[in-house]
Amino acid sequence: xxxxxxxxxxxxxxxxxxxxxxxxSKGRAYPQEECDIRTVYQRDRDRxxxxxxxxxxxxxxxxxxxxxxxxxRTRLTHTLEVSQTARTIAKALRLNEDLVExxxxxxxxxxxxxxxxxERALNxxxxxxFAHYKxxxxxxxxxxxxxxGLNLTWEVxxxxxxxxxxxxxxxxxxxxxxxxxxxxYIHHDMDDAQRAGIISEESLPEDLVNLLGHxxxxxxxxxxxxxxxxxxxxxxxxxxxxxxxxxxxxRAYMFxxxxxxxxxxxxxxxxxxxITQLYQFYYDNPEAMSIEYQDLIYKAQQPKERVVxxxxxxxxxxxxxxxxxxxxxxxxxDKL
Length: 336
Hints:
By secondary structure, the protein is mainly α. The protein has a domain at 36-179 and 264-329: Hypothetical protein af1432 (Orthogonal Bundle), CATH 1.10.3210. It is built from 17 helices and no strands. It has helices at 3-14, 40-49, 52-56, 75-92, 97-106, 115-125, 132-147, 154-161, 172-195, 206-212, 216-231, 241-259, 262-265, 268-284, 291-298, 304-313, 317-328. Helix 4 runs antiparallel to helix 5, helix 8 crosses helix 9 (172-195) and helix 9 packs across helix 12 (241-259). The longest helix has 24 residues, at 172-195. It is flat.
């Protein structure tokens, strides 16, 4: 018996009946020969990790634009923290860890440079709009591998598309990632904000601290345990009403005191201006983009405005700054 079949058999015997079994996957957009060692979800995880878009996450902003310090989160560390938390819950509920991991690792592949500031800029200027969760799916379906995409399973693509708060994942594994994305960014952004001196542990609402815990570790532990307790042997992933409301209130606190804070966002207007000007430049000068993006326009007949978004959203923070300087900042003659 080949190893993959042994793993698939073990899933059927040991996972919850509500788990997404690898052998029952709805499959890929186009069929491929099965691996003799890895299940379909393990292959998806590996394809995401080895993608260029995944590597670029290490140089993309999470919340703080151009933070001065070695310990602030990036889009990559956020992704890894989501994956770790989601796998913990999946293991406790006997759900498919490989599917959870693949969704978590791929959920932010389409994020822009400079976090949600870059996303807002592209959404405002592009006629058809821009949303990072849709872009993440576009990355894995089209942009990776020079227009071939990663050909991931339906379940992974569904989880990536629906990871946002308003999403409705069709698998329990996708529902776990949706919760863990929120749990992770609330707490690691809180940690970064405390490091930056924007908020302190003492400034948090007393009622929420008394309910959820008196440290970031305790509050994460409370939320994770609440999900596990309320979701065991259930056909959906749920929180208790009390903890769900508290998490929503903590998220609202973060928006008011951190995400909208002038300390955290003092460079945001500059980032939006830069992304907006880059969009207009590449729209007017598509030949300035990399050849694979030009091919998307002229060979694959993709809309130019969408390809310009593809190009800019794929940039890291530093690369976008370098491109802005190249196209808009005069150079000394000895550098020409």
